[in-house]
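2024-03-11 09:14:02 INFO worker-7 job=invfold-0412 stage=load source=structure_tokens
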């Protein structure tokens, strides 16, 4: 595929750029070796990025090279640039997995279908390119990436972040400035700067025959070594000025030099040539047929192109193309309004009303003046087509433009609200806020008012600022009144979710008030069969908050049982994973939590619902920790961080690893993460504060600092959040007993006595038995310790079992039953040591020493050298998944999975997939191949 509208012009050879050439050479070597590499070149206009892409293409003669140059006028066409990039590969879409193929073909408008998930489109892009690169190594060159439409940029950036071992290279060039959308920042970025003085002078000597030394120094200093500025300045200055005979302008007009020079070139053209150039600047890259149709409507001759070629504005190629992309943008920006409207009118008339309906609507809008409902309706129709392709930023743009031409205030407000919602779907809350502010003056009536508040609340949640959200949604419900009971229920479910996350940080309202309103709204839904599992769980949580544990626990149990019996869980959204975690923790229900989150994760992976999956991963990691699977938890945290980078979600990082840091004794990391939770309190994350206090309790207990543990545990106990209010109880009992606070221990035990029988899970009853053991004496204590161990053994709670053994062993040692104590303490030590729970392992080791025994220190096993991704791939292979199945689940390519498995085999010293389960300490079938 040739350059779409930029062709290498004859001129001086490349000078300097040794660092950039070396980076390109390393990238090409990696591609030839079967790996993948990405390089992002940034810099000001004219700095030489395009020339470096040309150099890469020349060096990659043995690779398949695909080049793409988007243009400014195409930024409104969602997935338009991606369509052009993938056009050579679209005959291979039948090789894609079904969901990926459906998403990509819908996004590109090849088939009709529901709006595709944007990340699934990115995954399809990755798979399609990798499949082609398997036959011949592939190099993608994307110039002027700042003009990519957002959807195409997201898909390309998503694929780039997941390239690893695919014989595929990508070099992206983009200009510094406000056009940069930041999507490529997480990749390998190299800023291209001006040429050093010696190289700049060498370039000047090639471009100018007579050049005075002092003049050369002045030009180099004035241009900052910008290659295009150097070359164009030698063209713009008179021979006498270059020779040092006539004075140079003072100062050199470098800041406006390039645009001004190109503008003067264009203005020197005959009028019909200028018009023809403007049309060329406005059509899709390479679509000169549309330009000529529009030119025909304006009565322009084909000969009008010749003066532009002679002046060097256009390259001497067929079809005509601009010599440099900056000429295109300069020409369009410098055209007079009446010239633009005339050109857009001609282009609108040249567009096929069916095949090019979207471009026709856009050109009509650019040509129109004042309010025009016909133009607005065309744009609204185009927005629906964009939505059906998953082009949400394009949909928002069309709707915003449609609103500007709409006469009726209520219709204008609806279109702006739709635009705000589309902006949120595309991940741009700031643009959504702007659309909402524009709509505010035209909003009339309760339904539109409620919708505005809901979108504002969603924008707040997107920025993880939840303090005001419950009150905003409660206000929306108040506006609706009794008109829309189903909508009111939905709003209150969202409000309850935000209130539970904010806990005591809510503004204006409270979780109890929101919960009471939700219960009342539930009574007004006539058709109870319309409620799904999410609705039933939210109602149960509302009863838990509004009516207390005695009435809430049975409702939670009923909702969880219903969810476990149900077949489909994919309807659940990311807030559901958070609420599910709270419900399960409130019932000490680890098995239901495991089962349901595993199903949620499978559903999220199947639809490439990355944001939902990321939240589910955090919940799964908590269950890994309770079962002593710390490395598996870290794998999930690492995947969450990867997804956060892909989606722009601001909730990644160490703040999610509070309990992992606490259990592994990483004090500095723990306290740093706790400080971050304090910083987030103003945003309404009250429950996160309490989870941090719970983590600090766990940490201090591991180190035997019971007074500090008591302080942190008491805070959680008094706030009593569903997220960890019950899980803190045995820790609080232990801290109270160790510090002699009998009243506090009795208070915590009383809550356990009240709630554990209502939950009636093995974890709940085992915790109750442990609390009783800590406060009992003699035979009763031993009986309760043994009961606790028996109950905890019934669930995936290896960490809790080890902790119970530690406490039992400590009690036995104090009773001077050293032999019995050694049995429990050694089992506890072995478990904690295997988990990596260093503070608790040390506590058990010291207790063992006090019995006269010694703890055997373990040597680190080979499997622990695996990276998080290698561990994840090995675990899936151990479970019997094929490379293709693993790739689909992890949103990578099969060749990347093969690469990771080869490293797993080498690190573990194995030669067959059948050996993986034993090597990593996991059960499960594994197949060769």
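2024-03-11 09:14:09 INFO worker-7 stage=emit residues=929
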């Amino acid at each position: 595929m040739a350059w779409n509208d930029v062709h290498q012009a004859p001129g001086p050879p490349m000078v300097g750029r040794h660092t950039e050439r070396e980076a390109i050479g390393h990238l090409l070597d990696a591609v030839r070796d079967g790996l993948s590499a990405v390089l992002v070149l940034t810099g000001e206009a004219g700095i030489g990025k395009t020339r470096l892409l040309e150099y890469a293409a020349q060096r990659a003669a043995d690779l398949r090279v695909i080049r793409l140059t988007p243009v400014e006028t195409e930024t409104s066409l969602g997935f338009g640039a991606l369509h052009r990039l993938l056009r050579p590969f679209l005959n291979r879409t039948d090789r894609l997995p079904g969901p990926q193929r459906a998403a990509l073909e819908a996004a590109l408008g090849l088939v009709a279908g529901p709006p595709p998930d944007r990340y699934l489109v990115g995954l399809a892009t990755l798979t399609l390119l990798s499949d082609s690169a398997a036959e011949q190594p592939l190099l993608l060159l994307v110039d002027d990436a700042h003009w990519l439409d957002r959807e195409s940029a997201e898909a390309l950036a998503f694929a780039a972040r997941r390239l690893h071992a695919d014989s595929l290279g990508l070099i992206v060039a983009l200009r510094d400035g406000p056009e940069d959308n930041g999507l490529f920042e997480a990749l390998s970025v190299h800023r291209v700067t001006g040429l050093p003085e010696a190289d700049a002078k060498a370039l000047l000597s090639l471009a100018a025959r007579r050049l005075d030394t002092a003049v050369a120094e002045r030009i180099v200093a004035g241009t900052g070594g910008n290659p295009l500025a150097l070359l164009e300045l030698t063209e713009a200055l008179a021979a006498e000025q270059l020779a040092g005979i006539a004075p140079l302008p003072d100062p050199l007009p470098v800041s406006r030099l390039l645009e001004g020079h190109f503008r003067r070139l264009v203005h020197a053209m005959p009028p019909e040539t200028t018009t023809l150039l403007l049309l060329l600047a406005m059509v899709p890259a390479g679509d000169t047929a549309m330009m000529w149709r529009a030119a025909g409507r304006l009565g322009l001759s084909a000969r009008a192109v010749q003066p532009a070629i002679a002046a060097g504005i256009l390259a001497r190629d067929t079809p005509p193309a601009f010599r440099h992309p900056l000429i295109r943008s300069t020409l369009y920006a410098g055209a007079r309004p009446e010239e633009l409207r005339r050109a857009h009118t001609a282009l609108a008339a040249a567009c096929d009303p069916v095949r090019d309906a979207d471009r026709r609507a856009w050109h009509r809008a650019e040509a129109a003046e004042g309010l025009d409902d016909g133009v607005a309706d065309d744009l609204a129709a185009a927005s629906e087509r964009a939505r059906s392709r998953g082009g949400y930023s394009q949909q928002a743009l069309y709707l915003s433009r449609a609103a500007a031409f709409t006469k009726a205030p209520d219709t204008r407000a609806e279109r702006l609200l739709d635009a705000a919602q589309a902006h949120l779907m595309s991940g741009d809350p700031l643009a959504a806020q702007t659309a909402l502010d524009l709509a505010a003056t035209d909003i009339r009536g309760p339904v539109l008012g409620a919708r505005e508040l809901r979108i504002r609340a969603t924008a707040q949640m997107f920025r993880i600022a939840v303090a005001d959200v419950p009150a905003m949604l409660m206000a929306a419900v108040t506006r609706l009144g009794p008109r829309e009971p189903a909508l009111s229920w939905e709003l209150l479910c969202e409000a309850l979710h935000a209130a539970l996350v904010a806990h005591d940080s809510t503004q204006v309202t409270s979780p109890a008030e929101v919960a009471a309103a939700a219960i009342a709204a539930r009574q007004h839904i006539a058709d109870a069969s319309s409620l799904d599992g999410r609705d039933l769980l939210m109602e149960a949580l509302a009863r838990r908050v509004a009516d207390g544990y005695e009435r809430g626990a049975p409702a939670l149990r009923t909702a969880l049982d219903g969810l476990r019996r149900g077949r489909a869980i994919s309807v659940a959204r990311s807030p559901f994973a958070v609420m599910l975690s709270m419900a399960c923790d409130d019932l000490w229900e680890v098995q239901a939590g495991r089962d349901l989150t595993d199903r949620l994760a499978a559903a999220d992976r199947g639809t490439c619902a990355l944001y939902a999956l990321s939240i589910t991963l955090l919940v799964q990691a908590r269950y890994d920790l309770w079962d002593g699977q710390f490395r598996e938890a870290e794998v999930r945290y690492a995947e969450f961080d990867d997804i956060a980078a892909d989606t722009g979600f601001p909730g990644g990082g160490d703040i999610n690893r509070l309990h992992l840091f606490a259990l592994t004794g990483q004090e500095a990391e723990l306290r740093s993460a706790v400080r971050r939770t304090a910083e987030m309190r103003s945003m309404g994350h009250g429950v996160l504060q309490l989870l941090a206090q719970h983590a600090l309790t766990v940490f201090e207990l591991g180190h035997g600092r019971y007074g500090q543990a008591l302080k942190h545990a008491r805070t959680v106990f008094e706030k009593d959040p569903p997220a960890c209010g019950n899980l803190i109880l045995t820790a609080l009992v232990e801290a109270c007993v160790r510090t002699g606070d009998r009243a506090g221990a009795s208070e915590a035990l009383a809550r356990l006595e009240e709630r554990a029988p209502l939950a009636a899970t093995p974890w709940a009853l085992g915790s109750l038995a442990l609390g009783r053991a800590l406060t009992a004496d003699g035979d009763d204590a031993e009986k309760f310790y043994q009961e606790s161990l028996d109950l905890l053994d019934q669930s995936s709670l290896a960490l809790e079992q080890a902790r119970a053994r530690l406490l039992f062993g400590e009690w036995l040692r104090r009773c001077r039953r050293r032999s019995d104590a050694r049995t429990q303490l050694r089992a506890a030590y072995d478990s904690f040591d295997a988990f990596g729970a260093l503070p608790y392992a040390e506590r058990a080791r010291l207790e063992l020493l006090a019995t006269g025994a010694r703890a055997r220190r373990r040597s680190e096993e080979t499997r622990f050298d695996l990276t998080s991704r290698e561990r994840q791939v090995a675990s899936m292979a151990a479970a019997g998944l094929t490379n293709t199945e693993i790739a689909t689940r992890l949103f990578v390519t099969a060749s990347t999975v093969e690469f990771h498995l080869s490293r797993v085999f080498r690190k573990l010293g194995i030669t067959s997939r059948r050996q993986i389960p034993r090597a990593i300490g996991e059960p499960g079938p594994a197949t060769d191949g």
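2024-03-11 09:14:09 INFO worker-7 stage=report msg="Residues 8 and 54 are 7 Å apart (CA to CA)."
2024-03-11 09:14:10 INFO worker-7 job finished
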